Amino acid sequence: MHVADFVSGSLAGACGLAVGYPLDTVKVRIQTQRQFTGIWQCVATTFSKEGVHGFFKGMALPMTTISITSSVAFGTYRNCLQCLKQARGTVHVPSTKPEIFLSGLVGGITQVLFVAPGDIVKVRLQCQTESMRRGSKPKYRGPVHCLLSILKEEGPRGLYRGALPLALRDGPGFGMYFLTYNTICELLSESRTEKPAWSAVMLAGGFAGTVAWSMSTPMDVIKARLQVDGSRETRRYRGLVHCIAETTRTEGAGVFFRSLGINCLRAFPVNLVVFVTYELLTGLLQAKPDSADTPRVGLE
User: Fold this and answer.
1) Treating both helix axes as pointing N-terminal to C-terminal, what angle do 39-50 and 260-285 enclose, rounded to 10 degrees?
2) Based on the number of CB atoms within 10 Å of its own CB, is 165 exposed (0-12), middle (13-18) or buried (19 or more)?
3) How many domains does the chain have?
4) What whole-number distance in Å separates Cα of residue 54 and Cα of residue 281?
5) Which of 37, 46, 244, 281 places its Cα 20 to 30 Å from the Cα of 87?
6) Is 116 exposed, middle or buried (0-12, 13-18, 19+ CB in 10 A)?
């Protein structure tokens, strides 16, 4: 079992969360609220009404749980990759592209069980535009209050509202993420068996995040809408399919790509930081390389 990947993944995920959280808040608001028509308009409105604090709403719980979710994603990916190589009897041979994608897919879906409750709390707090400093009274006073309110009003199932589109986002997203990282590292390295240079790690990490979020954005929009649906007014959507159909009917198909620009803008620096942190920590924790594969990290 690759224990180093669990440890390195948790710390790398926390670093990535800290770097990208302000833009993540802007992304969620653009996806779920019609009053925000673009990136800069959302940034300006949020800052003028809520100050800098408005960009970090709901960050406490994800920062607390990121070590668990990142460890599950990274550890599942690496150990699944190792199992697939053992199954074909080629442990010391670099993994194939289908193995990399499949292992990422499994890792992405597995971590949904742990990330979903914290994610819905994060999204609902990010969508609260009321500011205490202006005398407004927001529905949720903080992460713990939001968590308890969801349990009281919607039951345990409420914490997993939006889990299906989350799995449909993270499964293929993680698979494509790891596959892109591997491919770029191979192109920038002289051989498949050598570790990539730091410049290659940064470039591959940034582009891997951008590619993954490009294909994950439509399902990310559906996830966010289902998570905030019914928190303030009557519930609009009956489920995943109805949300897609209703959103397309009322706002057009273009709404699924409204946050594509900010997702890509956020993905490059965030995953650059995550990959560098992960590679550095894994190198320190591992006494010697245990396979021909370069370490991988997860989609943030």
Assistant:
1) 80
2) buried
3) 1
4) 32
5) 281
6) buried
In order along its 300 residues, the chain shows pLDDT tens digits of: 566 777 777 788 888 888 999 999 999 999 988 888 889 999 999 999 889 989 998 888 888 787 788 878 878 888 899 899 888 877 777 888 999 999 999 999 999 999 999 999 999 999 887 765 555 678 888 899 999 999 999 999 999 999 999 999 999 999 999 999 999 998 988 776 677 888 999 999 999 999 999 999 999 999 999 999 988 778 899 999 999 999 999 999 999 998 899 999 999 999 999 889 888 888 888 755 444 444 444 444
Asked if residue 290 is part of any domain, the answer here is no
Q: Please check whether residue 30 is in contact with residue 259, taking contact to mean a CB–CB distance below 8 angstroms.
A: yes
Is 219:176 a contact under the CB 8 Å cutoff? no
CATH code: domain of residue 194: 1.50.40.10
Q: What's the longest Cα–Cα distance across the chain?
A: 65
294 part of a folded domain: no
Q: Cβ contacts of residue 288 below 8 Å, gap of 6+? A: none
Question: Residue 25: which H helix or E strand, with range?
Answer: helix 3-32
Q: pTM to 2 decimals? A: 0.85
Q: Is residue 165 part of a domain?
A: yes
Q: Where are the alpha helices (DSSP H) in 111-197?
A: 112-126, 143-154, 163-188
Q: Which domain holds residue 114?
A: 3-285
- For 234-247, the pLDDT digits (tens) are 889 999 999 999 99
Q: Tell me the HSE value of 27 on the side-chain side, using a 13 A CA sphere.
A: 26
